[in-house]
Fold this sequence. Notes:
The protein has helices spanning 7-17, 21-26, 48-56, 82-85, 121-130, 143-155, 168-174, 206-226, 245-255, 291-295, 301-308, 317-330, 336-343, 389-392, 411-417, and strands at residues 35-38, 62-63, 70-72, 89-91, 111-114, 135-139, 161-164, 179-185, 227-237, 259-268, 278-285, 348-351, 354-357, 370-373, 375-381, 384-387, 403-406, 422-423, 430-436, 439-447, 450-453. Among the domains are: 102-192 and 206-294, Vaccinia Virus protein VP39 (Rossmann fold), CATH 3.40.50.150; 317-392, no CATH class; 400-459, Archaeosine Trna-guanine Transglycosylase, Chain: A, domain 4, CATH 2.30.130.60. The chain starts with 6 loop residues before the first helix and ends in a 12-residue tail after the last strand. It has 15 helices and 21 strands. The model is unreliable at 288-315 (pLDDT under 50). The protein is an alpha+beta fold. Strand 5 (111-114), helix 5 (121-130) and strand 6 form a beta-alpha-beta unit. The structure holds S-adenosylmethionine.
Amino acid sequence: MDHGLPREYTDRMRRQLASGFDEYIKCFDKPSCRALRMNRRKVSAVDYASVGRISTGSDVLEKVEGIDGAFYYNEGSPGKSPYHAAGGFYIQEPSAMYPATLLDIGDSPLKVLDLCASPGGKTSQIADMMNGQGLLVTNEVIPSRAKILSENVERMGIKNALVISSDPDELAVRFEGYFDRILVDAPCSGEGMFRKNPEAVNEWSPENVEMCAKRQDWLLDCAVSMLSEGGKIVYSTCTFSPEEDEQCVERFLMRHPDFAVCDPAIKLYPHTFRGEGHFAVSFTESDMVGRTETGGRRCCLNELRQHLRPPVSVRPPVSVELMRAFLMENLQDDCELMLQVLNEKERITGFGDSLYLLPDQCPDMERLKVYRAGIKLGTIKKGRFTPDHALSHVLRPEDAKNAIDLDPQSPEALQYLAGMTINCDKSIKGWCLVCAGGLPLGWGKASQGVVKNHYPKGLRSNSSV
Ligand code: SAM
């Protein structure tokens, strides 16, 4: 009956859940819930069913309540589907889909920070809500995890993100009063994941709960100093411990009496919701009057100017010309991204050999550990421009002069993802956008009926096809 759960944990949960405890424990006999969330910027609602069916092999996909484009699945390995490689959806635990909804991202462009962001489930959801508008700074302090975050940002075709790896303390000093929305999806004792990842149980101890609670207090204080006037913070965890969740909220309100909870907290348990465990709550200032005296969080104008200063850029004109020539040669005249690149000169920046289209209002990046800044357009080597994989993921098939659309269930699509050449019509020559089911997978270069594979080596699947 104990499912390997520590005695101190079950004793506490028995007190916490009272009559619900038995139901909670029974959940450990059932499989954990699996779900995927469609990338609404790539897949339109009419295609949800077919993308879901092809990717999971299941005819019936049940909706995750209240989350547009999210579906439970029981079968298949959607992570191996070409639609997944194309960023058509993100595999996300259903309960984890709720915190981002509290951020209240409307239609106006906002500056949003996802402070503890890897692997990027909530970042991709926030990006989906922002719909390419505003600036999304997504941070992960652990470098190896920041790399994964950056890859997911690329796969999902997010155009307006700055992916960084910084200590929250440093960010708090640097971005004082800067962000309109901040998500603190805090590292926690992970009790809500015990069914899904039984090994998480080994990490659990009352001391670890206490340490996580303190770290969450600190993360929330960092977030407060980065919040702009009238902004909103969402704090979430995947744990049940009151020392973290509810008491963290109480301690926060004690330390910041000018703040109030603005949406009732969400606490999801596997026996009350079809998902794993999660907690989420949002804070905003209860009173706008006197805020500068109380917290001094307002950004002084000079600091603000500094943040908005155009980035120090290396803009080698020759490289930019090569890049422009590539785009004009290979993309259609009405391609939105190309028109943006041609018109918004301020946002084109070079780092080393590579050229980027920065997000709108990109802050000064000096001394930040940047993993990705907007869209990596490509690289100049030996006087030639080579398009980057990231560029392929922000285009639509109709943007490219040469696009090859493979059947996502065909061996060719899997061959392409494994790094192999594919055949094409002999009339196609040069760079082409290789797609599956209408979503770009990456680049290829066609010559005499064969497409040379430019899918990045590090992403290639090993599966024999
Ligand atoms: N938001 C992510 C998502 O939806 O995919 C999950 C985030 S996970 C719950 C918490 C993250 O915080 C982890 O990636 C962890 O590496 C990071 N983290 C650990 N210690 C941290 C610290 N001291 N400051 C900030 N982040 C930290």
